[in-house]
Amino acid sequence: MHLESAESGPQAALEQRQASASVLAILAELPERARDVVSLKFAAGLSYKEIAEVTGLSVSHVGVILHEAIGRLRERLAKQEATTVAFASGRS
Predict the structure, then answer these.
(1) Which structural domain range is residue 85 located in?
(2) Biggest alpha carbon distance in the chain?
(3) Which alpha helices (DSSP H) does 30-58 contain, by range?
(4) What is the number of domains present in the chain?
(5) What are 14-28's pLDDT values in tens digits?
(6) Could you tell me the sign of the dihedral formed by the alpha carbons of 16, 28, 46, 71, in that order?
(7) Cβ of 42: how many Cβ atoms within 10 Å?
């Protein structure tokens, strides 16, 4: 049992790196404005109002862009997960 916990650390780290790589790849496919807004929100930690001031967009437009970008991200991640699960199931 002790061995399993030692292995779960590296496995969890690998899964985290893979998930991060997937998110970054999907974000790279977004239009530049969406990438900028997502980056300002999640990397810089700015509020919608602050993002609007930086980008010259309205606060509501910032909200729409973030909503659409996060929706695309969720959709693509769900598709990737489903593909991975189907592939793993087929090999069993």
Answers:
(1) 2-91
(2) 56
(3) 32-38, 48-55
(4) 1
(5) 888 888 888 889 899
(6) negative
(7) 13
